[in-house]
Amino acid sequence: MKAITDPDHALDRGLQAIRTQYDVTQDFPPQVIAAAEAAIRRTPTSHADRTALDFRTLDPAQSTDLDQAFLIEEAGADLILRYAIADVAWFVDDGDALDIEAWKRGTSFYLPDGKAPLYPTILSEGAASLLPDGPRPAVIFVVRVAPDGGARLDGVERAIIRSRAKLGYETLKPGDLPPLFDSFARRIRDAELRRGAARVDPPEQEVVALPDGGHVLGFRQRFPAEEGNAAMSLATNLAVAEALLEHRTGLFRVMAEPDAQAVARLRHSAAGLGLAWPREMTLAQFEARLDPADTRAAALMLEIRRAGEGARYTPYHPGVVPWHAAMAGTYAHATAPLRRLADRYVARAALEVANGRPVPGGVSAAFEKLPQIMAKADAREGQIDRAVVDLAEAVMLGGREGERFSAIVTDLDERGARIQLADLAVVARVAAPGAIPGDRIEVRLAAADAARREIRFEPAA
């Protein structure tokens, strides 16, 4: 992580400009706030009492919009995951002011100087968040995981729960996690490897606000407990997706494999980076072996992510098995309803089918409309994230025009060579005729313009 020196407050001005450009606001219209205030006064009437169960949450330490709480138990050779999800649908009615506003936003947006939540904070960080300060309404997914890692949905219920602890990735101490946490994660990971999944997250640039008001730019650190947390979410989403597919309904997350031409380019890139990719090994098998801590592997992982068409949402279509190549399975998003609009509807559908009831017409209709809404929100989120990083890079490099930097070429396309600076978390492009992925080159900073969020490098003479 590299501290950003910003005595002129160019970063603050730039972040405000990004909020204005992309219409990212933390504020809500008065009617939405009024609807939220009315919603938090509702007394749950359709929920079983599960407050005696030992649920806890696991998130970044500073997070307060807590979507999930968990409990893992043994049942013979199987493991039972009780994954409690914030019951957002209890607070939000179809067509009310909260619902209308959520459809406009699609998702929560996160910036270094604060987030723009999907729902007002009195809900998303208060009454609906699974914080350990009192009972909360939740939807509990009961997921049975066999010794081979196969996951199926054993039940879904609305319940009142009480989280016993708010655990943070950065602040975990020995004994904080339940004894079965690691063995559960191993089962899910082993099952992924057997079916050829490639759920490997490449390192991502991020800008982080510091307590003293400053900021740093770096690659996001991934903590060991995140793997286990991701395994619980994955198992739940796979189990929910299979249950919905069996009942011929749902909204699924799908992603195609890179085509043969793209895979051929990736093989050339791997060779250029000095990474051995045996001819008989598939892309998924190879990607599963990559270590994001290795800068060469990280560079290839980023290229792999760009090689395919990207993930998208699709409703159920008769005779079509929705497929997510990176997960190597049928997959849905159900576990983050405070932060993603689509999850609220998927959770509602799962609750109904698991209890032998028909999916409400309004939910089925939403499945047809949500792909477009979520695609727009995903694109906007990506643009905001990129704009923030571009701004931070320009601010950090401001005043260093003319300096030389060592860089590694990560890939090539029609716009030139993509490079990663050797000593800074900066990714850029440069004209580098004859370069191949893996080459180390010297570049000179030609321009750094914070107002335009642009940096420009040239080959060093």
Q: How does this model look, in words?
A:
The protein is of the alpha+beta class. The chain folds into two domains: 2-256 and 309-397, no CATH class; 404-459, Nucleic acid-binding proteins (OB fold (Dihydrolipoamide Acetyltransferase, E2P)). Helix content is 36%, strand content 25%. A five-stranded mixed sheet has the order 2-9-8-5-4. Strands 17-16-15-18-19 form a five-stranded antiparallel sheet. Helix 1 (10-21) runs antiparallel to helix 12 (361-397), helix 6 packs across helix 7 (224-246) and helix 8 packs antiparallel against helix 10 (295-307). The protein is globular, with a radius of gyration of 23 Å. It starts with a strand and ends with a strand. The mean pLDDT is 91. This is RNB domain-containing ribonuclease. Pfam families: RNase_II_C_S1, RNB. It comes from Novosphingobium tardum. Residues 47-356 form the RNB domain.
The main pleated sheet reads as:
5 strands, mixed
Quantity of strands, as a count: 19
Please list the strands of the largest sheet in the order they lie side by side.
2-9-8-5-4
- Taking the alpha carbons of the first and last residues, their distance comes to 29 Å
> Considering DSSP H and I runs of 4 or more, what fraction of the residues is helical?
25-40%
Number of helices: 12
Radius of gyration: 23 Å
**3D shape:** globular
Classify the secondary structure makeup into a structural class: alpha+beta
Mean pLDDT, all residues = 91
Taking pLDDT < 50 over at least 5 consecutive residues as the criterion, the unreliable ranges are none
Counted up, domains total 2
Strand content: 15-25%
